[in-house]
Amino acid sequence: MSAKSIVNRRSPARSRRELEICDVQIPPVGLLGILRIPSDAVAIIAFAHGSGSSRLSPRNRAVAEHLNGRGFATLLFDLLTPDEESDRANVFNIALLADRLVDAVHWLDRDPRTGGLRIGLFGASTGAAAALAAAARLGDRVGAVVSRGGRPDLAEGALDRIHTPTLLIVGGADYGVIELNEQAFARLRGAKALEIVPGATHLFEERGALEAVIAHAERWFARYLAGSPRSRIAEKKGES
Predict the structure, then answer these.
(1) Kind plus residue range of the DSSP H or E element containing 145
(2) Which of 138, 155, 161, 181 could form a disulfide with 129 if both were Cys (CB 3.0 to 4.6 A apart)?
(3) What's the fold here for domain 4-239?
(4) Sign of the CA dihedral 157, 128, 51, 80?
(5) Which residues are CB-neighbours of 149 under 8 A, at least 6 positions away?
(6) Spatial distance between the Cα atoms of 229 and 218, rounded to a whole number of angstroms
């Protein structure tokens, strides 16, 4: 692993919070990533981008930077190597993408900077399916999942095995994808919510749309990753 750290960078949301930023390579294939750790991190969110995107996705970076300002560490990383990206079929190989996300979670567990943190997953487009498939495999190690404009239907049979609290966010003008999210939502077994952002299309490029995504995601992660163990146990009892 190679790492470059930048210490004492200020978060945009809280000027007193120090933020460590590291360029990383995730084994076993050396996937490139950006790890951002606030000094008082309460949890870490691993991002799974969609087709045609990367760790440099401006939308995912905007979400990550806001979460950093709220005390969440973040990992944005490439799910495929450059050679793998040249084969378009890999972009829709959900099993492969989920494998990479599972590898990233195991790496976070081993890294001394992040090993003690609770973990959440944030997936966009096809990356949302990978996040859900990974959550089904990782079980209780993942505390929350958020999907932005996702294709959860591509997770297929994994949907029936997911007990992780899951939030699906979809644009109100993302016709067809709304229905796919509604069908997937019905199959999820744990705590769940479906938020439709009025007027938003698939990329949430409309004014205020991405801000709505950020607000929904922050609340979900704060609820399931930042609360006390006692409050989460009480909530689970109330749901049963």
Answers:
(1) strand 142-148
(2) 155
(3) Rossmann fold (3.40.50)
(4) negative
(5) 50, 124, 125, 128, 169, 170, 171, 174, 177, 202, 203, 204
(6) 18
Residue 128 — pLDDT band, cuts 50, 70, 90? very high
Eight-class DSSP state of 228:
-
Contact 90, 80 (CB under 8 A): yes
Round to whole Å and give the CA distance between 205 and 200: 7
Asked whether residue 169 carries a pLDDT value surpassing 60, the answer given is: yes
In contact, 2 and 31? CB cutoff 8 Å? no
Domains of the chain, by residue range, sit at 4-239
Q: Side chain identity at 155, as an amino acid letter? A: A
Backbone CA torsion sign across 219, 221, 226, 232 = positive
Q: For residue 9, what is the enclosing H or E element?
A: strand 4-10
What is the structure's pLDDT at 143? 98
Answer whether 0.90 is exceeded by the pTM.
no
Mean pLDDT of the chain: 88
- 76, exposed or middle or buried, with CB in 10 Å at 0-12, 13-18, 19+? buried
Confidence of residue 11 (pLDDT cuts 50, 70, 90): very low
Query: Is 238 a residue whose pLDDT tops 70?
Result: no
Residue 86 pLDDT: 86
pLDDT tens digits for range 189-226: 999 999 999 999 998 999 999 999 999 999 999 999 98
CA dist 41 and 59 (Å) reads 22
- CB atoms < 10 A from the CB of 27, how many? 12
Concatenate the DSSP letters of all residues of 38-107 into one string. Answer: ETT--EEEEEE--TT--TT-HHHHHHHHHHHTTTEEEEEE-SS-HHHHTSHHHHT-HHHHHHHHHHHHHH
